[in-house]
Amino acid sequence: MSSGKKLVIVESPTKMRSIQGYLGDEYEVLSSVGHIRDLADKRDIPEKDRAAYGKYSIDIDNGFDPYYVVSDRKTKTVSELKRAVKNASEVLLATDEDREGEAIAWHLLETLKPKVPVKRMVFHEITKDAIRAAVERTRDLDLALVDAQETRRILDRLYGWDVSPVLWRKVGTGASGQALSAGRVQSAATRLIVDRERERMAFVSADYWGIEARAARDAEGFTVRLVRLDGASLAVGRDFDDRGQLKRAVVVLNEQDARALAAAIEAAGTATVTKVEAKPGKRRPYAPFTTSTLQQEAGRKLGLSAKNTMSVAQSLYERGYITYMRTDSTNLSAQAIKAAREQAVALYGERAVPLKPRVYASKSKNAQEAHEAIRPSGEQFRTPKQVAGELGRDELRMYDLIWKRTVASQMSDAEFETTTVTLAAQVDGKTAEFTASGTVYTFKGFLEAYEEGRDERRGDADEAENQSLPKVAAGDALTLTDADPKGHSTTPPPRYTEASLVKALEEKGIGRPSTFASIIGVILDRGYATKRGQALVPSWLAFSVVRLLEQHFAELVDYDFTAALEDDLDAIARGEQKRVEWLRSFYFGSGEHPGLRNIVDNLGEIDARALNATPLTDTATLRFGKYGPYIEVVDPAKPDEKPRIVNVPEDLAPDELTAQKVQELIDAPVAGDRVLGENPENGKLVVVKDGRFGPYVQEQDPVDPDAVDEETGEVADEVPKKRTAKKAAAPKPRTASLFKSMSPETIDLDTALKLLSLPRVVGADPETGEEITAQNGRYGPYLKKGADSRSLESESQIFDVTLEQAIEIYKQPKYGARRTASSALKEFDADPVSGKPIRVRDGRFGPYVTDGETNVTIPRGTSVDDVTFERAVEMLAEKRAKGPAPKRGRAAAKTTAKAPAAKKTTTAKKTTAAKKTTAAKKTTGTTASSRSEAAKKAAATRAANRAKKAAEGQ
User: Fold this and answer.
1) Catalytic residue at 815?
2) Running DSSP on this structure, what letter comes out for residue 541?
3) Under 8 Å CB-to-CB from 161, ≥6 apart: which residues?
């Protein structure tokens, strides 16, 4: 780079390219690709510092001083940035203007140590005008924000590293081997999901009946609902509590009464209008999007997860289509208000906007977020139609959502009139009263542009549908026909969706909206919850984890306490609270609470067996074990015998495991160990079994006929044989897993024999003579010819594929034309670095992005549809920046020392001196001498460790 350019450092490769185009050749824009430093791993801390920093990479006894190191994956990025800093005339740190962005900027400053002027450059949108203005209006680094981020990072490290090991010891791992974890926000959010399921489990449904009829005058008819009998209200869902008991005195109709009353209403045939009420009303538009409300609405209307919402929004921001997407503010700038009002007038007329611009007060006290709501960028908003050709599917849908919400936020109120008609009829000597309501919008206002979605609510079944009512007056006589009795049942509170969980967390003040997406991702990855449609269903694992936390870390999962922590962190961000004093109070305790250290040190005995047990009935207990949940059934007549074990279906939600369902599972016939028949080739029995990794068939030696149940075909338990002298190991019986399309209840002998015959010989390659086989493997069905394998499209092809078809598959390149046709899920333009086309392919470990040189797996929770060209370029850039994955093996073979670790000291100005460890010199001797020297060092280390253990034992 030529001398004298100003260096701008951002955290994203996409932002880098956008901003470079706006600033021109006088500037060089580079990316840090996120954080470059973090708390050190134990192995990266020098021996002399391990006593102080070794457990957490934090010196808890000396001001909670953190020990930072440059990530191995970022050494190449840091080297490039250092070279650029040497030739720069000025450095502009242009990371996001929030706690995380401020911390990234501070770490860059501490690591690069520029000797030229350094300024902080901030902006809320990536447009030419905004970037040019940001260059002119720089500021100093906000050390209060850095303090707040560092406090949060230290807090989460202490919380997670002290509490998570208790989960490992007392709960174990998830059914799929997931490592369990606890976290300040994660654990409170998990408890919310579990608490909601507990409410559903305790819920008792109540039944009630209602009657609807058709009222008409001349040809105009409308639906009315029976609401009172002789002045007493009829029961509706909201009249019952969660135990199925009435909360007030009402008339509850059963089916028999309702049908009799409906027949009487039909017989009466007429009703008189007793009252007509018309009430005007207004609806105000919704505030522009914040991070939280965007996540909620994108979940409701677009079906996007919180994680995908933030990913799509980040792409729109970095490409200059919307303003910064991590914000708690509902405020709009003057230029945004002007743009929204002008667009509303152009689209919907002069009356569409009020005389004065609307101003929305932010509910958040948080000082860390950007100061404007999420909106389309620029002084004039581009309509969705104008950008349709530039955006991917989800990007366009989200831009449309943001554009509509922003424009609608500046529009006039919607005006409506609700009319309620009351009728009365004499039925079997009783006065039956009916009502009907209808709402008519006299001026739609903002509803022309946008209407907010809603979460599922209880009592929706009792809501009458809006309808158009004819003009009637008190005293009018109407006909009553089509009386229809309808049964209803009260419903439990709905499970949280990602959208409603985000809303609940924000309302309770737990966490920050910018972290909700990652928190929900962790809950799903840990196996604490799964998604059924949009609903979050907790696992029994989550019940065990939450039970442990409630019993032994009650304060840490208390909703009010967790919210108070968030308020304290905001106070640190505003400079109103001291970081070290607050951390000392949280960890070591104060008069208000005992402190995390004291809680962990005084846990006492924890009964893991009781912790992982949930009583279901008098004789059945659900337990959570190494391989997941199961029911332990005790025989009341033989309480001392070993309990019977019953598997719990994976797709059964906790609230569905009722006493009735438990008994059904206990009484169900065992599907495993069912004899299908005899293999005519060798006389062995073929048995279907249900194993740990799914159903399979197996050959077994014939058994005594008396040992087989004639009705079920199940093999009875064999009598244990006396132990004899050790014999040579018998050959393992042939086994074969069932295909995904097969069931152990329906599989027959012929199908089982086909499975046991695999791999199937398809034929020999006519050119090479090599045998081609078809078989099923861990990653699906495939063909094999020597060491060359090719995937098949379905399991049925294993039995159906012909030699000619197999030869045709092998004629096509393994990762070429055939592969592209079947697994090139998306194709983009050439990568700006490699110059090669980017493709999204389907690999053995899932979909991935590649340019032919660099491959990067698409993260879990991100769908292929979410990957845009810009996101693909960014993913490839991040992978290149990380460099090749380190090879596994002995560390002694390395010839280059790691980068020195930097130790941060807590001074007022945040100036820190890097703790330098002596770098190992490059070896210049032969490979043999290098290994010899490494072996000596390794031996010395082992000897020192043995001596240390011996000393501790004394």
Assistant:
1) no
2) H
3) 55, 56
